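Q: Predict the bound structure with XIL.
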Amino acid sequence: MNRRQLLLLGLGAVSGASTLGLGQWLHHRATRAQQARDRTFPVTGTQPLWQRAAAKGITFGASATRREILEDPDLAQRFVEDCRMLVPANELKWKTIRPSATEYQFEVPDAMLAFAQQHGLIMHGHTLVWHNSLPDWFAETVNASNAEQILVDHVQTVATHYAGQIRSWDVVNEAILPEHDQPNGLRKTPWLEFLGEDYLDLAFRVAHGADPQALLLYNDFNLDFAVRQDERKRRAVLGLLERLTAKGVPIHALGIQGHLSGAQVPHFDAEVMRRFLRDVASLGLKIFITELDVIDKAFPADLSIRDRMVAAAYEDYLSVVLEEPAVVSVATWGFSDRYTWLNSFHPREDELPVRPLPLDENLQPKLAWNAIARAFDQAPPRDPNRGETQQE
Ligand code: XIL
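A: Predicted complex:
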């Protein structure tokens, strides 16, 4: 293997890696660990991440829970320094804001919005329609005859409550799952069961009616790698976006969650990703990276290697994704390793704490921070009018 090939591997652009035999794959993995050891992530200047992003017409932010923002002042302060957008991680989900089929409670997300506004942050809404995080009453209450009214009431009430204040919404989250073998690759959810595919159209139309200024997203995961599962998912998501835009449904952007599994990083194919982003953009849609983090389960325990591999995953991914001018927003899912969903959802076998985010558990920037900074610094500038997360 020559130096250029090694470099390409380090950049993650291994076309056809999915066809490698196990021996070769293990060899590549060892090579990647070796390379990560040698990789440095120098950064120039002292600007925070949001400013580096803004210089290119991109919004940078992160998700946070109420605990992080309202009860951990040190985290909150670091958050505000680097972020320009706040995404409540759980606080706008049905489970939090719907105590019953007729009631809404907005105190917690309202407090997060007040924090955002005090600190000059914009807020991204997550999420109006999802099959997950539903309250206990949902299964007992919702049926084919009331589902439409319950969905409309929810989207209408929540989007109206935040009209003019939440700039962009994940209107529908994770509606595609080709493995469920439904028409058009749709995921089996109560909404699909009771309302058919048109529940998506309905959610977007009602959200748009309630807040015509808000930028409306369809958001999903497993869109990043050149593996069969992601290929099917990309195809189905593109199909959905084509149908929605062709029908004139008010959808403005695709949200790519970007939970990057370290085990799949060798299967990142820059050309496959570029083509997907171009296809989405050609429908007239913007693209947000909505939930970026790096699942470090498959990486060695040694921090000096692990942190470099996480950083490499960030930089290799973002440097490709940010070439596409339709990508106007990047958010990480959490900001410090002090709080991350991955300790419970994707724990390491050695039970060491995971390190998926830009700051460590002591709120110190890691190489992942540098990697993100470098990707923004190297990104081509986009049309400044497209950078704001506002509908044109
Ligand atoms: C996760 C939160 O981070 C956890 O705190 C919660 O227990 C479960 O949900 N994709 C999504 C997010 O769209 O809503 C999920 O957030 C992470 C995966």
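A: The domain at 3-42+51-378 is CATH 3.20.20.80 (TIM Barrel).
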